[in-house]
Amino acid sequence: MVFFKNQFANVVEWEEFRDDMIFWKWSNREIKKGSRLIIRPGQDAIFLNNGKIEGIFQEEGDYNIESQIIPFLSTLKGFKFGFNSGMRVEVLFVNTKEFTVKWGTKNPINIPTPQLPGGMPVRANGTFQFKVNDYIALIDKIAGVKNSYLVEDVKIRIISILDQLLMKWISKEGKDMFNLQANAFEIARGIQEDLDMQILDSGMTITGFHIMSFNYPKEIQDMITKTASHGMIGDLQTYQQVSMTDGIASGKVQGGGTAADMAGMMMGMSMADKMMKNMNQDQQEAPNQTGQPQAGGGKLPNFCPNCGEKTSGGNFCSSCGQKLV
């Protein structure tokens, strides 16, 4: 009798486990007396009878179905195994971990903007996270008709609506089209809320959505970079001078020595001219340490410019009568 009892014994476990598998259904087999249930870390086991949940088991371990599982089933807890009779149920194994998925737009999204009549072509990429959170909805919407479900199935569903959501949240409230990265967090938060509403009825929830970068066409990116560099320097003339200096230092400004020499001379003359202007301005602003202030605001020289005699503080030279102010 022991021989016959053991030959009918089987093991109920997730036989086709994959890291990217959300659930897998053990079905179309009869559970015999002496069968065992194995639940591994990160798995939940749901016993189903005619599509209805009989019991949910979340603790990992190796269980005797007759003594440790059946007593906790809703309508089958009084089931008695016979020699030739077994219990026909389905067991749905669910991966309880949080899944992380990389995403990226396949084609540029043309965001309406006044600066470009045809719209701003933008690409984006990032990641999103999701997990199963409602077993009843999962069974009603997906597991009832599928034996397994992969992360790729969720990704396809998300990507199919992501372009519209990106356009919606980028265009909302007049975002700066040339600096979308500054608003990446706000845009991602809005998209996460919308995506969560899309898959919530399937028993899953979006736990995170992140935008790593926005990418513009090369021509627009070059324009953004050039505008930013001009803004940092501020003065276009200074920008040109700095560019010329960089060209000389890197050897890009050449021409048998003549072009580089001319450029260097022009830069030197320009810098010298600015230095002279600054010196003259400083001299005009500094007080005269040797002269004497007058009522009219003029300054007396120490010696007469006509005869060379030392002045005595008057407005006219006491020797030759030359006007001093």
Task: Give an overview in words.
The chain has 325 residues and is of the alpha+beta class. It has 3 domains: 2-95; 99-216, Tetrahydropterin Synthase, Chain A; 296-325, no CATH class. It contains 8 helices and 14 strands. It has helices at residues 2-7, 65-69, 135-143, 151-171, 184-199, 218-233, 236-250, 258-285, and strands at 11-12, 21-26, 30-31, 36-39, 43-49, 52-57, 61-64, 87-88, 90-95, 99-104, 109-113, 116-132, 148-150, 204-215. Strands 6-5-9-2-13 form a 5-stranded antiparallel beta sheet. Strands 10, 11, 12 and 14 form a 4-stranded antiparallel beta sheet that branches. Strand 5 (43-49) and strand 6 (52-57) form a beta hairpin. Residues 27-231 form the SPFH domain. One of its GO terms (biological process) is proteolysis. It comes from Siminovitchia thermophila. GO terms for molecular function: peptidase activity.
How many domains make up the 3D coordinates?
3
Q: Which class do the helix and strand fractions yield?
A: alpha+beta
Question: Percent range for helical residues?
Answer: 25-40%
Our measurement of the CA-to-CA distance between the termini, rounded to an integer number of angstroms, reads 135 Å
Order of helices and strands: HEEEEEEEHEEEEEHEHHEHHH
DSSP helical segment count: 8
CATH class of the largest domain: Alpha Beta
Overall radius of gyration: 42 Å
Mean pLDDT: 80
The CATH architecture classification of the largest domain is 2-Layer Sandwich
Question: What is the strand arrangement across the widest sheet?
Answer: 6-5-9-2-13
CATH topology name of the largest domain? Tetrahydropterin Synthase, Chain A
Fourth-tier CATH superfamily name of the largest domain: Band 7 domain
**Which outline best applies?**
rod-shaped
The number of strands is: 14
What percent of residues are in strands? 25-35%
Identify low-pLDDT runs. Answer: 1-7, 288-297
**What's the quaternary structure here?**
single chain
Largest sheet: 5 strands, antiparallel
